[in-house]
Each structure stands twice: as C-alpha cells, then as structure tokens.
Amino acid sequence: MCGIVGGVSKRNVLPILLEGLKRLEYRGYDSAGVAFRNNKKVSLVKTQGRVADLESQLDGSLKSLQGIAHTRWATHGVPSTKNAHPQDSGNSIFVVHNGIIENHENLRKKLTKEGFKFKSDTDTEVISHLVNLYKTKGYDFDSAVMRTIAELKGAYALGIIDLDNPDLVIGAREHSPLVVGEGIEENFIASDVMALSQVTNKFKFLQDGQIALIGSDKIQIMSKNGTAKKIPTQEIDSNSFTNDLAGYSHFMEKEIFEQPKALQDALQGRVTSEGTQEGIFGAGFEDQVKDVTNIQIVACGTSFHAGRIFEFWSHKFLGVNCRVDYGSEYQYQEPIKTDKTLLVTISQSGETADTLSSLKFAKKTGKPVTLTICNVANSSMCRESDFSLLTNAGPEIGVASTKAFVTQLACLNLLLLTMMQLKKQPKKAIQNISSSLLQLPKKINKTFDMLKVYKDVAKLLFNKNSALFLGRGMYFPIAREGALKLKEISYIHAEAYPAGELKHGPLALIDKDMPVLALVPDNEHLDKIQSNIQEVAARKGRVITIGPLGKTKIGKNGGHIKIPKTLDLHNPIISVVPMQLISYYTALLKGTDVDKPRNLAKSVTVE
Ligand code: F6R
Predict the structure, then answer these.
(1) In what order do the strands lie in the sheet containing 553-555?
(2) Does residue 294 line the site of ligand 1, with CB under 6 A?
(3) Of these residues, 204, 403, 487, 602, which one is catalytic?
(4) Whole-angstrom distance, CA of residue 593 vs CA of residue 599
(5) pLDDT > 70 fraction of the chain, expressed in percent and rounded
(6) CATH numeric code, 244-425
(7) I want to staple 123 with a disulfide (CB 3.0 to 4.6 A). Which of 101, 240, 366, 442 is the partner?
(8) How far away, in angstroms, is 405 Cα from ligand 1 center?
(9) Which secondary-structure segment (H or E) carries 531?
(10) Could you read off the pLDDT of 379-416 as tens digits, one per residue?
C-alpha cells in the first residue's frame, strides 16, 4: 500500500528519500513521486511506474536539503502520473498522503468555489489546496495545516512541505501509521520504520491525532489543537530491517525457506517441553484470561486463516467458544457480549485498517481483554491492545504471506497451551503438544527435501484456469490458505471447499482441466475425505493429495505428497509449506511478479 518518506537535513536528502522509497516497494504500489527543494523553488517529479523510473528521471547531480516522497497504491483515481503524489497546490504546497479522505467530495466543491482548479482525481489534492487556502488567508504554514486537518474526515498519514519554509516538513497521522526518525542535523518522517533504517535507529511513533513539525535541528510534536506533546524516542534494531535477497530469487522464496528459523524465533524462550513460560503475553495476562468464557478472533486474509485453525483448537482442547470474523465484517455483526471475552487480533503488519478498526470498535462497544498477535513491534494494533505477542518472523517483504502465517500459528499454539495450563488440564497433554511444537522447525525443514515434486505439481497447474482445494475440519482453513496463495501470485482462479461440500455443487466443475489439491490427514476424517477424492477421480478429475500417510509419487495425472508426520493439531502447519512452494513454482512458470502481484499491497491501511 502507499508509502511515505520525507525529511530535512544539512546534507542532500534526495538519495535518502529514493532509498526510503525502494525500501517501501514491498508494500505494493503503482506510481511514485518526489517533491524536493531545488534552490528557490520546489521541484516535483512523478511517474506511473517503479521507483527506478523515478530515479532515472532525476538528474544525479541534484542536491536538496528538504523533500517528501511517495509510493502510491491507487484508491481514488486510476494509477497515472497526474494522480501520483506529491499533490501540489499552486506550486507552493506539496502533500503526500496514505489513507482515504472520506469527505473529499464536499471539500472539493468548497475549494472549487474558492477558485482552486483540480488537476487530479485524487482525494489527496483537497489537502494541498486547503493548506494553500489557509495560507493565503494569512495563517502560518503549521496553523494552516492544523486548520486543514480539522476539516478532514477519514484516515491519513501526511507529509507536507511549503515553498516558504525550507527547513520544515510537517507530518500528521489519523488511523494510518507515521513515524519520526531522529538523526544528527537531520530528521525524517516515514510510514514505516523500514524506510529510514539506513539513516537512523531512533524513532518516535506518532499517535492518532498528532502532528509533527520536523526541522533539521528540531522535532516538535503537537496534538490537533496545538498542545505540545512529548513522546519517547525508541531505539529499534535496524539490522533486522534488511531488504537483502541473500541469494534467493524472490523474497517469497527466501521467506518460505526461512520458516524453520522463524518458528524457532517464535518459540525461543517461550515454551519448553513442559509448557509455556509465564508472562510471555505481558505481565498479568494469565490473571486476566483465566476465566474467559468466549474468544473472539478478528483478522484478514492469511491471518484470518490462522484464526480459523485456532477456533478448532479452542473448541477441542479448551472447550471455550471461539468465533472468528473478518476484520472487514466484524463491525456489521452484533458482537456477542459475554462477561469475559478475550479479543484476539492477528496481523502480520499490525496496521491492517479493517482489523485495527475492529479492535477499536470492540473496545468501544464492550470490555474485552485484548491481545494482538503481530509481527511488528510498536505497530498500531500492539499499542491499541492490552497484551501482545510478537511472532518474531522477521520482516516479511513478499506480498504473499508465508513465514508470518506459520509463526502466527506457533503463537496461537502458545496461547492454547497457556490457557490449557490455566485450566489445569492434564500435564501429559500439555507436554505432548509442547514437545511436538518444539519439533516443528525440524519437520518443516524436511518438507524442503521435495522441491522437485513441488515443481512437478506446478507443471500440472500453471496452464490451468482454475484449481480446487479441499480439506475437512482444521485442514479446511489450510485448503483456503493454499487457494489464496495460488490465486494471489499465479492469478489462477483457486477456490477452497470443505471436502464434504463437493457434492453440494462444486462437483459440477470437475473435469480433466480442473486440478484438485486435497489435504488428507491421519485422523477420523481420513475415510470420508478418501471417498470425496474418489468422487473427483470418477469424473476424470486430476487429484494431488497432501498428507502424512502413504508415499510421495507424482505422475502426469496427479499423485501424492507425503509430509512429515506429527500430532494432528500440528499437521496443518506442516502441510501449508508444500502449498506455498507449489504456488511459488507455478507463479515462476507463469512469469508473474511473485513479490509484487498485480493490484495487491502488503500492508492494507485503508478499509
Ligand atoms: C495473503 C496476505 C493477506 C494478508 C492480509 C492481512 O498472502 O498477505 O491476505 O494476510 O492482508 O494482513 P495482516 O496480517 O498484515 O493484517
């Protein structure tokens, strides 16, 4: 999704801004731009394309001490140069914006009456004109920004510069993240710590409603009404923010192979073969959740699938009712109100607007204990929740989520174990699950022995228009995750069904051109799913099965992939890895942009 980087310095900021944009590329974007002080004027360069195109349009000898830059993921107005940010007003006010201004149409009408001419179809352009309007009415730059913000409805992270203020960048945030990076004789703003990790490891995380005035020698934080605010500076280990491919062809590939290590990091110091350590979710967590009667999970996409697996675990091992809602849907359901609800938000980024607004909604409409399972420390969701557990997967750059998913499941398993301990469940059961969990990194490593097999399956898939994924019970969310991976990076239409639903409709789709991937567990569902597979085979469907039984064998009409056997509750975590790799190799055969699939963004910060 959109990315912001801006700054003022006593040295040339242009290379810093461009490097920042490159580090934000992973979020997904369709156009890019930069506004920078160029002697007595501010120059604006924009492109509908990649940051490299933008860079090639800039004279390498240019030097600038102030600037703002942006990668745009279109919401209002098609991807084009005119709609790319920065948006300017009268060549004097320049704005970069992440988010959506909901009342932009009314503001556009008002500004048109005031004589402003709009050059773009964006909602953002109202912001530059409003600031300009208030400046022409005699307000200082910062007061003009504050008056503007008072009129905006919606979500925004903003970076703004003014022709008359060469040593000032103004940042503001409301429901969209923005950080301030502190340097020596230079200061910056960015939508993501990663954008600035090449210049600083000191950050201030703005809260909703805060405004930052950034000069090369000053950082001033204010609330919307102008009251000065103090926010602490946090040191972040910038070494962990690397965007180095380390010899892999794609970040998705690298991140799939990092999963054993990511899992180890997620479990390290938190669980032994006897169970989980106290306090891993934060001090006092155990006390707060020991008598919860209801668990509500809210998440989107891949993170939602992780939640759906926990739902099965909760019912089976805790006997606690658990419901899972999409972040984009939660607010439309009348939330079930019980005395003691644990609300769990799951998110790689911790910034997904739908999940974040659900968390805020839940807090406003009830009194849940809130826990976020998230990969990004200091993210909005972590800060909004009573408790949090970091997945410790390391930065996930590929748009398709892989290592975040398996580490989310590991963390959810830690939640399960903690609650089993609180419920004084038999020690033996806790020890079995804990020991098996600790074995997972090794077992996932074993799935990498079969790369040739996954490549063979990819050859069966890449020239097909559709594929069907089947699973039963807690393997159904994994089937859904497999289908999501395939569709998002290879653009093959893929649908997942609970295997038993096949005969209620989707069986009509089966023919030799509809490959079916079925998850075959070693549990009480085995016979039933085998019958479902027969139903497909009898109609000339090509079936590829994945499971811990049998032998691996792939032919031109399908076959079987044997995965390492583990406890039934952990097999879904292992079985997702072959699916990730099959999708990856299919996308390679199709020649799609694996790390930046069309139309998608990494961090979805609009509802
Ligand atoms: C799919 C994918 C998305 C995200 C979803 C939620 O591969 O990455 O479906 O899972 O956008 O994002 P987070 O987890 O950051 O809240």
Answers:
(1) 493-498, 466-471, 515-519, 542-547, 558-562, 553-555
(2) no
(3) 602
(4) 11
(5) 98
(6) 3.40.50.10490
(7) 101
(8) 9
(9) helix 526-537
(10) 899 999 999 999 999 989 899 999 999 999 999 999 99
Contacts of 441 (CB under 8 A, 6+ apart): 259, 260, 261, 263, 264, 267
Ligand 1 binding pocket includes 605 (Cβ within 6 Å) = no
Q: In the numeric block, which tokens belong to residue 131?
A: 């600031």
CB of 580 closer than 6 angstroms to any ligand 1 atom: no
Homologous superfamily of 3-240: Aminohydrolase, N-terminal nucleophile (Ntn) domain (3.60.20.10)
Residue 375 Cβ inside 6 Å of ligand 1? The answer reads no
Question: Would you say the C-alpha torsion 104, 109, 110, 111 has a positive or negative sign?
Answer: positive
- pLDDT of 48 higher than 70: yes
How far, in Å, from the CA of 301 to the mean position of ligand 1?
5
Mapped onto helix, strand or coil, the DSSP state of residue 188 is: strand
602 is catalytic: yes
Strands 369-374 vs 493-498: parallel, antiparallel or unpaired: unpaired
pLDDT tens, residue by residue, 425-437 = 999 999 999 999 9
For residue 61, give Cα distances in angstroms to 14, 40, 56, 484, 507. 10, 17, 12, 45, 63
Check if the beta carbon of residue 585 is closer than 8 Å to that of residue 458: yes
Q: Do domains 3-240 and 448-597 have the same CATH topology?
A: no
302 ligand 1 Cβ < 6 A:
yes
Q: How far away, in angstroms, is 498 Cα from ligand 1 center?
A: 22
448-597: CATH number: 3.40.50.10490
Strands across the sheet containing 31-38: 41-47, 31-38, 66-72, 3-9, 186-190, 179-182, 202-205, 234-235
**Residue nearest to ligand 1 atom 3, measured at CA:** 301
CB 376 within 8 A of CB 356: no
**Number of H-type helices and E-type strands within the chain:** 17, 28
Domain parsing of the chain, residue ranges: 3-240, 244-425, 448-597
Q: Whose CA is nearest to atom 4 of ligand 1?
A: 301
Establish whether residue 604 lines the binding site of ligand 1, counting it when its CB lies within 6 angstroms of any ligand atom.
Answer: yes
